[in-house]
UniProtKB/TrEMBL annotation:
Source taxonomy: Eukaryota, Metazoa, Ecdysozoa, Arthropoda, Crustacea
Top-rank taxon: Eukaryota
Domain Helicase ATP-binding: 103-267
Domain Helicase C-terminal: 292-465
EC number: 3.6.4.13
Keywords: ATP-binding, Helicase, Hydrolase, mRNA processing, mRNA splicing, Nucleotide-binding
Species assigned in the record: Daphnia magna
Single GO biological process annotation from the record: RNA splicing
Single annotated GO MF: RNA binding
Signal peptide residue numbers: none
GO cellular component, one term: catalytic step 2 spliceosome
UniProt protein name: RNA helicase
Catalytic activity: ATP + H2O = ADP + phosphate + H(+)
Length: 738
């Protein structure tokens, strides 16, 4: 009370400045420049300057229509909601009035397509309804797949809370390298990839009474494969109920695929969203985001902001810049809580985005695509959409796979905008022009199956006994070349024989929930007697981009610290070195801090390592150490990743061996200044150029030793010296060429 009264009594000048600014810019078009001018005239520009030095001009051209609300369902305002108990909140969700009808429909039909606006309660409520209706009797479970790890974890936590149970007991989740379920689990959330793996041990999904394939519209590779498998199972398990749940208008397509399964539509409760576009394209969209956030914060009424960025790095950059600018503004602006959300964020931090915003403050969530449909954050009124996302892209001709930032589709843009209209009328600021929206964005996102390497799933399908992949029941088939290349790679790795059948090695490889190359490397550690080291390298590679920490203000120190870990032979050895030193400090947090290493990533690497050790032992490989034998370790890596070989070219760059593609060593690599003749890279990242990230030095002769199906001596002539490679002159038969 005191606070409010005080402010009322003495309306101090700073407060007034913002009031003025708000009035001036209330007419969107974000006429911030006008506002600034007006304030300048009044001699009040000083504080305002900091903020609106560079502003972005937006124009409003259209509006995303709200769908008709549910008539007899009163709107639940934000404030009411906070006071509601969890059970009341459950009842306030759009899906609630349809509970009985939905259960009835499930009863009557084996396969049901459920369509409903994001946030209507599909993911959190349907499994509970089914549980309450008795679908979990006789030890059977209700399963629900999620394309994203974070969503599986966070939704499971929410449902456990709603049911008043401890997470991991009745309600659990299962994601790669982490199983948080128990004997008692009856509602199980899992990533779609994990369900695929469950087919290996339980091909008829016997332990489930209902399986929900959620977020079907996302069309991830794993979800697409699940469609085919599950459709097949439904035929010989008439007691298994299947729900395909989707946020958007793909329901028709799903229904067609599942033999005309009925569609259950949950009417949305959506408010209109005004759409604003920039007048001109933005050169630096991260900066444009930061400016727009501040513009909204000082000129707009209450309501939280959701910003879509493409990944962790961008989020951290924006976070830093925003924190810095709000710090400079100090108490002149209201409190702005800046919260990141991305896949690698630890779960306690993830939970923060769901906490209610304190009175008087504003929440600003910097999210990846995950907030597009997988996670619903309440009270978002403003959405900022730069129009990009990170996507896998795959060149089936060269076999090169990379993560690239690409423009989103119109469907995505509209989903994003829709996030602003869930609790009240909202606004969406698109950091691109209306023209770009109309002419440059594709209608829909291409399903993942048509743009990624299929090695993994082909191996899995082969181990499920599905040999004829060409005739597999795909919702949308992958391109022929991609399928062919996956088969070719698996053949080169020795996972398939010349008939295309799974080999013993292939069967063992399929035991590992990792990329086939990684699986092969793990298995090769048996021959080279270095399983301890290879398991560590595999674990570290799986968190690799997040091991070293590089704060901008201490960049030099961080770089020095990183260089201290450099080990001869390449980045794989550097990662091994980091891990082993951490083990020697007894997993010290302090040590990580002092060495600019992300403790969280290390903990995750330790968890992954533990899981891998279990898997390695399951395929009966002994854990043995051979840490001084760099050749043995190098050969084991080569046995898995020989596909990713590049050689130094005469010009000092690198060329991939098979496709002669130009690639460069990533500047962060320990090999950056070394330029060895032959390299194997762990992955390619494309920024301005095609960079190899995590490289290891090899000898070309190793390639013939570990991949005789794949390399011929003539492929491996050394172009830098023109010296005779060691193997030249040997016959193909000697090289194991067949
Ligand atoms: O799946 P759908 O998009 O239809 O909705 P949902 O994820 O089941 O979300 C229903 C409600 O639960 C929303 O109001 C969410 O904000 C809330 N929720 C939450 O508070 N915490 C979570 N971890 C997940 C959902
Ligand atoms: Mg959902």
């Amino acid at each position: 009370y005191v606070e409010i009264d005080d402010r009322e009594k003495q309306p101090h000048s700073e407060q007034r400045i913002w009031e003025d600014a708000r009035m001036a810019t209330a007419q969107w078009n974000f006429g911030a420049r006008d506002a600034k001018q007006r304030l300048q005239e009044k001699g009040k520009v000083h504080d305002y300057d900091l903020l609106l030095d560079d502003t972005i001009d937006f124009v409003q051209t259209n509006q995303l229509a709200g769908t008709k609300g549910i008539e007899d369902q009163p709107e639940v305002s934000d404030i009411q909601k906070k006071k509601m108990s969890l059970q009341e909140t459950r009842k306030s969700l759009p899906i609630f009035p349809f509970r009985e009808d939905l259960l009835q429909a499930v009863e009557e039909h084996q396969i049901l397509i459920v369509e409903g606006e994001t946030g209507s309660g599909k993911t959190t409520q349907i499994p509970q309804y089914l549980y309450e209706a008795g679908y979990c009797k006789d030890g059977k479970k209700v399963g629900c797949t999620q394309p994203r790890r974070v969503a599986a974890m966070s939704v499971a936590a929410r449902v456990a809370q709603e049911m008043g149970k401890k997470l991991g007991n009745e309600v659990g989740y299962s994601i790669r390298f982490e199983d948080c379920t128990s004997e008692r689990t009856v509602i199980k959330y899992m990533t779609d990839g994990m369900l695929l793996r469950e087919f290996l041990s339980e091909p008829d999904l016997q332990s489930y009474s209902v399986m929900i394939i959620d977020e079907a519209h996302e069309r991830t590779l794993h979800t697409d494969i699940l469609f085919g498998l599950i459709k097949d199972i439904a035929r010989f398990r008439p007691d298994l109920k299947l729900l395909i749940s989707s946020a958007t208008l793909d329901a028709e397509k799903f229904s067609d695929f599942f033999d005309e399964a009925p569609i259950f539509r949950i009417p949305g409760r959506r408010f209109p969203v005004e759409i604003f576009y920039t007048k001109a394209p933005e050169a630096d969209y991260i900066d444009a985001c930061v400016v727009t956030i501040l513009q909204i914060h000082v000129t707009q009424d209450a309501g939280d902001i959701l910003v879509f960025l493409t990944g962790q790095e961008e989020i951290e950059t924006a976070l830093e810049s925003l924190t810095e600018r709000t710090r400079r503004l100090g108490t002149r602006i209201k409190e702005l809580l800046i919260l990141p959300i991305y896949a690698n964020l630890p779960s306690d931090m993830q939970a923060k985005i769901f906490e209610p915003t304190p009175p008087g403050a504003r929440k600003c969530i910097l999210a990846t695509n995950i907030a597009e449909t997988s996670l619903t954050i309440d009270n978002i009124i403003f959405v900022i959409d730069p129009g990009f996302c990170k996507q896998n892209s795959y060149n089936a001709r060269t076999g090169m796979e990379s993560l690239v930032v690409v423009p989103i589709s119109k469907a995505s843009a509209n989903q994003r905008a829709g996030r602003a209209g869930r609790v009240a009328a909202g606004k969406c600021f698109r950091l691109y022009t209306a023209w770009a929206y109309k002419h440059e964005l594709e209608e829909n996102t291409v399903p993942e199956i048509q743009r990624v390497n299929l090695g993994n799933v082909v191996l899995l399908l082969k181990s499920l006994g599905i040999n004829d992949l060409i005739h597999f029941d795909f919702l949308d088939p992958p391109p022929h070349e991609t399928l062919a290349l996956a088969l070719e790679q698996l053949y080169a790795l020795g996972a398939l024989n010349h008939m295309g059948e799974l080999t013993k090695l292939g069967r063992r490889m399929a035991e590992f929930p990792v990329d086939p190359m990684m699986a092969k490397m793990l298995l090769a550690s048996e021959k080279y007697k270095c399983s301890e080291e290879i398991v560590t390298i595999a674990a570290m590679l799986s968190v690799n981009s997040a091991v070293f920490y590089r704060p901008k203000d201490k960049a030099i120190h961080a770089d020095t610290a990183r260089k201290n870990f450099f080990s001869p032979g390449g980045d794989h050895f550097t990662l091994l070195n980091v891990y082993n030193q951490w083990v020697d400090t007894d997993f010290s947090t302090q040590w990580c801090f002092e060495n600019f290493i992300q403790h969280r990533s290390m903990r995750r690497a330790r968890d992954v390592r533990e899981q891998l050790v279990g898997l390695v032992e399951r395929v009966e490989i002994d854990m043995v150490s051979n840490k001084d034998d760099l050749v043995a370790i190098g050969k084991a890596v080569t046995a898995g990743f020989f596909y990713n070989t590049s050689r130094l070219s005469k010009t000092g760059g690198y060329k991939t061996v098979k496709h002669n593609q130009t690639v460069l060593i990533h500047p962060n690599s320990s090999m950056f200044e070394e330029l060895p003749r032959w390299l194997i890279y762990h992955e390619l990242v494309f920024t301005t150029k095609e960079y190899m990230r995590q490289v290891i030095q090899i000898e070309n002769s190793w390639l013939l030793e570990v991949a005789p199906h794949y390399y011929k001596a003539k492929d491996l002539e050394d172009t830098t010296t023109r010296k005779m490679p060691k193997n030249k002159g040997k016959s193909r038969a000697e090289l194991g060429d067949h």
